[in-house]
């Protein structure tokens, strides 16, 4: 089964339906409100991280995903035998496989 994600860019919006410390991560564009995630201090405790920082990281996910795919693509044109076992190359492939839905 092929998985597809909501295309970016994603933006952070204050969401006052729950309280003043709530955010929605939404797809920007096309005139529709496509909510990707809702975040609230009641759902994510501050002891696990700052809500605003977490929202910023989530909103950057589509851009980071596209950049990492571009890095992998550009690296594929060279002779990678000398770096294929480097931890960062292995991690790059693991992260992209996870994002692409591979088990």
The gist of it:
The chain has 103 residues and is an alpha+beta fold.
DSSP summary, beta strand count? 3
**Total tally of structural domains:** 1
On the 0-100 scale, what is the average pLDDT? 78
The arrangement of helices and strands along the chain is EEEHH
Q: Kindly, what is the distance between the CA atoms of the first and last residues, rounded to a whole number of angstroms? A: 12 Å
Task: Characterise the protein shown here.
This protein is an alpha+beta fold and 103 residues long. It has one domain (10-99). Helix content is 37%, strand content 17%. The chain is built from two helices and three strands, in the order E-E-E-H-H. Strands 1-2-3 form a three-stranded antiparallel β-sheet, covered by helices on one side. Helix 1 crosses helix 2 (87-99). The radius of gyration is 17 Å and the shape is elongated. The protein starts with 9 loop residues before the first strand and ends with a helix. The mean pLDDT is 78.
